[in-house]
Amino acid sequence: MRYTIPFFGVICFMFLSCAEKTDKDERPNIIFVLADDHRYDAMEFMGHPFLKTPNMNRMAGQGLVFKNAYVTTSLCSPSRASILSGLYAHNHGVVDNYHSVDENLKFFPSYLKDNGYETAFIGKWHMGGEDDSPREGFDYWLSFKGQGTYWADGHGTSREVPQNNSDGFNINGKRVPQKGYITDELTDYAMNWLEKRTADKPFMMYLSHKAIHADFVAADRHLGSYKNMVVPDSTQFKVGENTPMWVINQRNSRHGADFAYNLPDFDINEYYRRYCETILAVDENLGRILEWVDDDDKKEARKTIVVYMGDNGFHFGEHGLIDKRTAYETSVRVPLLMYDSKTSKGRVINEMVANIDIAPTFLDMAGLPVPESMDGRSMKPLMEDKNIPDWRNELLYEYYWERNYPFTPTTNALLTERYKFIRYQGIWDLDEFYDLELDPKEMKNLINSAEHEDMIKYYRQRLFELLKETGGESMPLLEDRGNYYPLRHPEKAKSANFPENYFLKPKKD
Ligand SMILES: [Ca+2]
């Protein structure tokens, strides 16, 4: 049965705005569910034409929806490190998917554990490749090496995925075989941990799904659910105006719509259907957690907040691309939803928030000070519907070139609610500037627009100011590791021409 307390009365209790006045044990429990590569619009309540996500809808309808949630780096390991540390990639140093984390880096679970929280990590860690041994800050640990696998026997996979492996789970240092479908099984372990725990202290559980990472494999029960459905917006395959050469060239690459994963017969509609079918188990299993939280008989459940987030987005043909990494909307925007059992009315929060805000928020919710070194900021006041006049209205974005996928350059961007400036490092190419209000699909690059010249100049300057303020003026240079994917298809899209304005204009007389 659901409580019917007036909404505003609930907020204070719900998010413990009164933390300092309450007993330590009244601090909230936190269940953080992280999905991999879940783009912001792949949820039913976002108006998706066929995808059904009843539990994400419920979180949105009865909880908080952060409409403008971003990642500051759109790649698995760097984004995960930002979530855990509250730092930009240029400060935590995890700038690719291949290197381990600096041992001196302290993640938010350690702060919580040191201050009386029971903590659990269950799922994909993916920082440090082949090592899935227990990390600092967790009382309970279950993880797997690299990308793990959807099924232990690998069925349903259509290609070899780098860093996939079937070596089972590492549970508190012991190898245990994987038995079932990964999303179900990780949630089984999560539910089991919730049911069996006896400690008389608040908890933080970090459930980190393998889904919905490529190569997408849905649970057997969901196979064929979206048969014959196609990518909703086919206009997205077009190349826009003044598109940088590297984008046009990436189209015919491992991360391009023409030669995705270097498969000559790649079918993007089929791939998208598989993505949506794989989301179904994430939603269903989220429902199991919401059900636990909704159980009025459990005191523990009533003070629990569930947070659902994606670690980065994913292109399905936008700009001729697949994968993520870029500063485009479908890559940088993520779902961010919050839910507890006592709130019945949903609320949309429009402020710009990011992966770097998760750690400060959780510390703040636990009544702990947010270390000054953290780049992110606590979202707790926004959760409490407070007016925060100095909340950020701009956000830094960065991506560091990986030799493995040589087509996407090092990228720095400045995002505001309406405009986006994107700068590339180390290549002979166009930068980008978009008016997202007039051009939400980023099809018209205004970088050469005379009308926007002053604004672009300001954005460029501001980008460097923010880099300087946050210590982002130097770039880590890490050793090349992993596979190299330079292949192009000889019969697909040709190389880009240089932009017209790069050519010397002949003199008129
Ligand atoms: Ca990811």
UniProtKB/TrEMBL annotation:
Residues 28-367 form the Sulfatase N-terminal domain. GO terms for molecular function: hydrolase activity. Transmembrane segments: none annotated. It comes from the Bacteria. InterPro entries: Alkaline_phosphatase_core_sf, Sulfatase_CS, Sulfatase_N. Gene3D superfamilies: Alkaline Phosphatase, subunit A (3.40.720.10). Keywords: Glycoprotein, Hydrolase, Signal. Pfam families: Sulfatase (PF00884). Belongs to the sulfatase family. This is Arylsulfatase A-like enzyme. It comes from Arenibacter echinorum. The lineage of its organism: Bacteria, Pseudomonadati, Bacteroidota, Flavobacteriia, Flavobacteriales.
